[in-house]
C-alpha cells in the first residue's frame, strides 16, 4: 500500500496527562539501548580478577565476604559507572537530538531522569550480579550466619550517586572528554575517600561508603549494627536526590513553574537528608564491636550472638572454636598442641582453650583467666586471607598462647593478630630488665615449637606481639633458652614461673 | 489560523537571522523558500518552540508559546523535523518513533498502533526492526518524517524533508503532505522549488531574514515571466523575486 | 534568461595541495586535523591531570607518600591515556578515509604529540615533589597506557576506549601493592627495569601502529 492509497485517518483523541505506563515504556526503551551493558565484559573480567579471587581467599564468613563487596567490588565499578553515565548524559548533544527532544511535550528534565534511571539501574544490576556470585558461593561454604545486606544497600546507593554525578557532568559538559575525566575523577574520589577514612581521624570520614565494611567478627560473635549504614544511605540518597533536583533547575531542563518548584523541593530535600546524615555521623562513637549512632541505635544489637562452640581435645586440653571456624579447628588444635606440650602441667597452663571475639581480648591476642584456667584467643587471619601462610597462622596462635601464659609488659601494641592488621608497637623507651626476661622466655618457647619471631616491627606486630620490640640481647637469651634440653627447660619454668611473672627475674638470670 | 506571527525577529550576536516576519497560516501546506542563510531554519525553530524569539509576537494553535503550560500543549500537537536530524544509532526504527511518541505524551495505549501507522505511511514497514545506524540517508529522513507525524499533529514543521529521498519517494511524500494538510497546518522549508509547486497551496520566499514574497506558486511563477534565471517556471519566479529583493 | 546566457566558468583553479607538511597549507592541514580531534580540549584535560597530581603531592593528600604517591600518579596517567584514546575518534568517518596520503601521518603525529604532552603535563605536576620512580616511571607508564587505549579505540571506537586504560590501571594498583614481578605489569616494576620498559614500549608501539594505519573504529552502537 502506498501513501496515496492509505485511507484518511480519523482524527485521533488529544493526548491527555502522561500515564505511568508511558514512563515505564520510556524506561524500557532506555534500558534496552543503554551503554552500560557494553561494560559487562570488562567488568566481568575485573570481577573475577579482583573481588571474586579476594573473596574466595577469605574464610567463608559473611562479614569478610561482605567486606569484599564494599572494598573491592564497589571501587572497581565506580569508574566505569561514572564514565558511562557521563556518556549517556551527553547523548543529546553528541547525537544532535536536543531540538527534537526539546520540541516534545514531556519536559526535558523528565527525559533526562529516565535516561539516568536506566543507567543507574544497569549499574546496580551489574553490581548485584557480582554480589549474587560472591554471596551465592559463600552460602554453599559458610557454616554460620547469614548474608549482610546493609553493606550491599550502601553500595547500591553509592552507585546511584556516582551515576548521577557522572550524568550531570555529561549533561552540563557534553564534550568527548567528559566521560574519561568523570571515570578518573570517580576512581580518584573512591581511592582518596577510602584512604581518608582509614588514615584520618575525622568522624565525618565515616560517611565514606568504604567505612561500612563490617568489623571483625560481625555476624560471628556480634550482631551487625546498621547505624552507620543507615546514616550513609541517608547521605548518599540525599546527594542523589539533590543532584537530580539540580538537573531540573538547569537552563535546558525546560519546565514550567510547577516543575521548577518540584526541582527546588527535591534539591532542598536531598540537601536536608544529606545534612541530617552528616549531623548524625557527628554523634557517632565506637561501640563494642562497631560504630554506633545514638539516635539510630537499637540496644538489642549490642547482645552477643549465642552459639555452641565446637571442640576437640589437644593433649587433654579441649580446644574450642566458634562454629563459623569449624573448618579450621584441626589447624588450631595442631598449633596449640605444640605449645601445650611444653607448658602443660605448669602453673597457669590452660585447662581449656576457647575462641572469643576480638573485642573480648582488649590489647593482647590471648588472655588466660580462671580458675579453671582458660585461654581466650582471637582467631587470626586464616590461611590464604590477607596473605596469611600456614606457618603464619600457626605462629599467631602460638604467640597468643605464649604471651598469655607469660604476660609481657602489658603495653598496648595495636590490634591483636586476629584482625590481620599490623600493630604499631608501644612508645619507644628503655624496656625494663624484667620485661626483657619475659620476652626472652616467650621467644624461646616459640622457637622450641618451630616459630621464629620476625625481626621487622610491622610483621612482628601483625602476629599480635603485645610488647616492645625485642632487643638483640633478648634474642640471644631466647636462643640459649630454646637450646636447653626439654626437661631442663621445663624444670626451670616450674621453679621460676612465679618469679618470672612477678618481674623478679632479669635476662642475666635466665639459663 | 494555526500560525499567527507578527514582527518576529531573532538575533544571534550581531547576525539578524530573522528580521521582522509576519505570517499567518491555517490548514494546508505552506512552503518556505529561500537561499542558504535566509532565516528559514531559524523561523522554523521558533515555530517549533525550541528557539525563543528576540522580539515579536507568536501564536501557535491559538496559544502563546511564551508560557510553559501553553507551550507544552502546543508541543503535544506539534510535529517537527529539523534540517539535521539527530538520532540514536542503536535504536531501531520502531523504537525511535515510539520514543518520540512517548515524549510527546501520547497515551501509551495508542502508541503501538500510531507507530505502526507512521512506519507504514513512510513505507518503512520492512525496515521497522532495523537499527538506525544501518539505514541509508533517505531512509533516515523518512524515519524523521515518521516521528514528526506519529502523533497526527495539527502543526507540522518540516525542514528540508525530501533531502535524500529519491524521486518516487518525493512523489509519495508530497501526497502524504496533501493528506496531512486536510486538517493540519504543514509548513515545509525547502530548496526544491518543485516540491513547493507540487504540494503547497501557498508559498513565502525569505531573503536575509525577511519575507520578500507571499502568494501562491502560480503567482510566484508569474513573477518570473520574462525575468529570472532557471530551467523551470517556478525557478525563474524564485530568482526574479530574489534579484528584485537584492537590488 | 536561458542557460546559454550563463557565463561559462573560467579554467578551474588547481586547488593548493600541501606538497610538504611544512608548507603553509600543510600547517593549516595539521591545525585543522588537530581541531577535528579536539586536541585543544585534550590538552586542557591533560593539563588538568597534571594540576591534580601537583596539588595532591604538594598538599600531601593521604595518597601522596610511598606507594600511595605511585597509586595517585597511576590514576592520573590512566586519565591522560584515556583522553588520548578518546581524542583518536574521527568525527568524519568514511569521507576522511577516502582522501589522500596524509591521514596516517596526521594520526601518528597527533597520537605521539598528545602522548608527549601528557608526559610533559604529568612530569611538570610531579616536578620538585618526591615521586618514587620519577619521570622515567611516568614516561613508561604513559606510553603503555596510551598503547592500551589506542588499541581499544581501534576495536570499540574512541567513545569507550577510555575503559581500557582504566581497567589496566585498576589491575596495576594491585600489582603495585603486591609487588608483582611480571613485566607486563610495568607500573609495579622499578623505573630502570628493562623488561617493564620493553613491554610498555611494545604496547605503545602496537597502539601507535594501529592508530596510524586504521585510526579509531567508527563504533556507533552507543
The CATH homologous superfamily of chain B is named P-loop containing nucleotide triphosphate hydrolases
Mean pLDDT figure of chain B: 90
Largest interface: A-B, 44 and 53 residues
The count of helical stretches of chain A stands at 16
Q: Major beta sheet of chain B, specifics?
A: 6 strands, mixed
User: Which CATH architecture of chain B would you pick?
Assistant: 3-Layer(aba) Sandwich
Total discrete domains of chain B: 1
Can you walk me through this structure?
The complex is a heterotrimer of chains A (511), B (247) and C (222). Chain A is mostly helical. Chain A has two domains: 20-302, no CATH class; 310-509, no CATH class. Helix content of chain A is 54%, strand content 5%. Chain A is built from 16 helices and seven strands. The radius of gyration of chain A is 30 Å and the shape is elongated. Chain B has 247 residues and is of the alpha/beta class. A six-stranded mixed β-sheet of chain B has the order 5-6-7-3-8-9, sandwiched between helices. Chain B has a three-stranded antiparallel β-sheet with strand order 2-1-4, covered by helices on one side. Chain C has one domain. In chain C, helix 5 packs antiparallel against helix 8. Chain C starts with 23 loop residues before the first helix and ends in a 9-residue tail after the last helix. The interface between B and C is small, with 6 and 6 residues.
Amino acid at each position: 500500500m502506498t501513501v496515496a492509497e492509505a485511507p484518511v485517518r480519523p482524527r485521533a483523541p488529544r493526548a491527555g496527562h502522561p500515564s505511568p505506563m508511558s514512563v515505564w515504556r520510556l524506561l524500557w526503551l532506555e534500558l534496552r539501548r543503554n551503554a552500560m551493558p557494553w561494560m559487562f565484559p570488562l567488568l566481568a573480567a575485573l570481577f573475577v580478577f579482583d573481588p571474586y579471587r579476594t573473596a574466595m581467599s577469605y574464610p567463608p564468613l559473611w562479614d569478610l565476604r561482605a567486606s569484599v563487596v564494599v572494598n573491592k567490588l564497589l571501587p572497581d565499578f565506580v569508574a566505569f559507572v561514572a564514565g558511562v553515565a557521563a556518556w549517556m548524559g551527553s547523548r543529546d548533544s553528541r547525537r544532535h537530538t536536543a531540538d527534537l527532544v526539546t520540541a516534545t511535550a514531556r519536559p526535558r528534565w523528565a527525559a533526562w531522569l529516565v535516561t539516568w534511571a536506566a543507567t543507574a539501574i544497569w549499574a546496580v544490576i551489574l553490581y548485584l550480579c557480582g554480589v549474587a556470585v560472591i554471596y551465592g558461593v559463600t552460602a554453599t561454604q559458610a557454616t554460620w550466619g547469614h548474608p549482610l545486606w546493609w553493606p550491599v544497600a550502601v553500595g547500591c546507593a553509592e552507585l546511584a550517586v556516582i551515576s548521577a554525578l557522572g550524568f550531570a557532568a555529561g549533561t552540563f559538559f557534553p564534550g568527548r572528554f567528559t566521560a574519561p575525566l568523570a571515570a578518573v575523577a570517580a576512581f580518584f574520589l573512591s581511592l582518596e575517600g577510602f584512604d581518608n577514612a582509614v588514615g584520618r581521624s575525622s568522624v565525618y570520614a565515616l560517611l565514606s561508603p568504604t567505612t561500612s565494611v563490617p568489623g571483625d567478627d560481625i555476624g560471628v560473635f556480634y550482631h551487625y549494627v546498621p547505624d552507620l549504614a543507615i546514616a550513609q544511605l541517608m547521605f548518599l540518597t540525599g546527594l542523589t536526590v539533590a543532584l537530580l533536583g539540580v538537573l531540573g533547575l538547569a537552563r535546558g531542563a525546560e519546565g514550567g513553574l510547577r516543575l521548577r518548584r518540584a526541582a527546588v523541593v527535591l534539591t532542598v530535600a536531598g540537601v536536608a537528608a544529606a545534612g541530617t546524615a552528616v549531623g548524625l555521623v557527628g554523634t557517632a562513637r565506637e561501640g563494642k564491636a562497631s560504630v554506633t549512632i545514638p539516635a539510630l541505635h537499637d540496644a538489642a544489637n549490642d547482645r552477643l550472638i549465642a552459639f555452641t562452640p565446637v571442640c576437640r581435645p589437644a593433649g587433654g586440653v579441649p580446644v574450642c572454636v566458634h562454629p563459623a571456624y569449624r573448618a579450621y579447628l584441626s589447624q588450631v588444635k595442631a598449633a596449640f598442641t605444640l605449645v601445650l606440650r611444653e607448658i602443660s602441667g605448669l602453673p597457669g597452663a590452660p585447662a581449656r582453650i576457647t575462641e572469643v571475639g576480638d573485642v573480648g581480648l582488649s590489647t593482647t591476642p590471648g588472655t588466660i583467666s580462671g580458675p579453671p584456667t582458660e585461654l581466650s584467643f582471637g582467631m587470626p587471619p586464616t590461611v590464604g586471607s590477607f596473605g596469611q601462610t600456614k606457618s603464619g597462622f600457626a605462629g599467631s596462635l602460638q604467640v597468643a598462647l605464649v604471651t598469655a601464659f607469660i604476660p609481657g609488659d602489658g603495653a598496648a601494641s595495636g590490634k591483636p593478630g586476629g584482625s590481620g592488621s599490623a600493630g604499631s608497637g608501644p612508645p619507644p623507651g628503655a624496656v625494663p630488665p624484667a620485661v626483657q626476661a619475659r620476652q626472652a622466655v616467650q621467644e624461646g618457647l616459640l622457637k622450641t615449637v618451630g616459630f621464629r619471631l620476625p625481626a621487622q616491627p610491622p610483621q612482628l606486630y601483625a602476629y599480635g606481639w603485645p610488647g616492645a620490640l625485642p632487643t638483640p640481647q633478648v634474642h640471644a637469651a631466647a636462643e640459649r633458652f630454646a637450646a636447653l634440653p626439654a626437661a631442663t627447660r621445663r624444670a626451670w619454668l616450674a621453679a621460676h614461673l612465679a618469679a618470672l611473672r612477678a618481674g623478679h627475674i632479669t635476662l642475666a638470670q635466665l639459663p | 489560523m494555526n500560525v499567527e506571527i507578527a514582527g518576529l525577529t531573532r538575533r544571534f550576536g550581531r547576525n539578524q537571522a530573522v528580521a521582522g516576519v509576519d505570517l499567518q497560516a491555517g490548514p494546508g501546506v505552506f512552503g518556505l523558500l529561500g537561499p542558504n542563510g535566509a532565516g528559514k531554519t531559524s523561523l522554523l525553530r521558533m515555530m517549533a518552540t525550541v528557539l525563543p524569539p528576540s522580539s515579536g509576537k507568536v501564536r501557535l494553535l491559538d496559544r502563546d508559546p511564551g508560557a510553559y503550560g501553553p507551550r507544552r500543549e502546543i508541543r503535544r500537537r506539534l510535529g517537527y523535523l529539523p534540517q539535521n536530524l539527530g538520532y540514536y544509532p542503536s535504536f531501531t526504527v520502531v523504537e525511535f518513533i515510539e520514543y518520540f511518541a512517548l515524549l510527546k505524551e501520547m497515551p501509551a495505549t495508542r502508541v503501538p498502533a500510531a507507530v505502526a501507522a507512521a512506519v507504514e505511511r513512510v513505507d518503512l514497514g520492512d525496515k521497522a526492526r532495523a537499527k538506525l545506524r544501518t539505514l541509508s540517508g533517505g531512509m533516515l529522513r523518512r524515519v524523521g518524517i515518521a516521528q514528526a507525524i506519529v502523533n497526527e499533529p495539527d502543526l507540522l514543521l518540516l525542514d528540508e524533508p525530501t533531502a535524500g529521498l529519491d524521486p518516487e519517494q518525493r512523489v509519495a511524500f508530497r501526497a502524504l503532505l496533501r493528506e496531512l494538510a486536510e486538517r493540519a497546518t504543514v509548513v515545509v522549508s525547502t530548496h526544491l522549488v518543485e516540491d513547493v509547486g507540487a504540494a503547497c497551496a501557498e508559498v513565502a520566499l525569505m531573503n536575509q531574514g525577511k519575507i520578500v514574497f507571499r502568494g501562491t506558486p502560480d503567482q510566484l511563477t508569474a513573477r518570473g515571466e520574462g525575468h529570472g534565471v532557471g530551467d523551470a517556471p517556478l525557478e525563474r519566479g524564485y530568482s526574479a523575486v530574489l534579484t528584485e529583493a537584492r537590488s | 534568461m536561458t542557460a546559454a546566457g550563463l557565463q561559462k566558468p573560467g579554467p578551474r583553479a588547481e586547488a593548493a595541495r600541501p606538497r610538504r607538511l611544512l608548507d603553509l597549507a600543510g600547517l593549516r592541514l595539521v591545525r585543522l586535523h588537530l581541531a577535528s580531534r579536539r586536541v585543544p580540549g585534550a590538552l586542557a584535560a591533560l593539563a588538568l591531570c597534571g594540576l591534580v597530581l601537583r596539588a595532591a603531592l604538594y598538599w600531601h593528600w593521604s595518597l601522596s607518600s610511598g606507594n600511595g604517591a605511585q597509586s595517585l600518579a597511576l590514576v592520573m596517567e590512566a586519565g591522560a591515556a584515556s583522553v588520548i584514546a578518546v581524542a583518536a575518534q574521527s568525527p568524519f568517518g568514511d569521507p576522511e578515509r577516502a582522501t589522500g596520503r596524509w591521514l596516517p601521518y596526521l594520526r601518528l603525529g597527533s597520537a605521539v604529540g598528545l602522548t608527549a604532552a601528557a608526559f610533559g603535563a604529568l612530569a611538570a605536576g610531579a616536578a620538585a615533589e618526591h615521586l618514587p620512580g620519577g619521570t622515567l616511571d611516568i614516561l613508561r607508564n604513559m606510553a603503555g597506557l596510551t598503547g592500551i587505549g589506542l588499541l581499544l579505540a581501534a576495536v570499540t571506537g574512541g567513545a569507550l576506549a577510555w575503559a581500557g586504560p582504566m581497567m589496566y590501571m585498576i589491575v596495576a594498583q594491585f600489582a603495585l601493592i603486591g609487588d608483582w614481578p611480571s613485566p607486563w605489569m610495568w607500573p609495579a616494576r622499578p623505573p630502570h627495569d628493562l623488561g617493564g620498559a620493553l613491554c610498555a614500549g611494545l604496547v605503545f608501539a602496537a597502539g601507535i601502529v594501529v592508530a596510524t594505519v586504521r585510526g579509531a573504529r567508527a563504533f556507533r552502537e552507543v
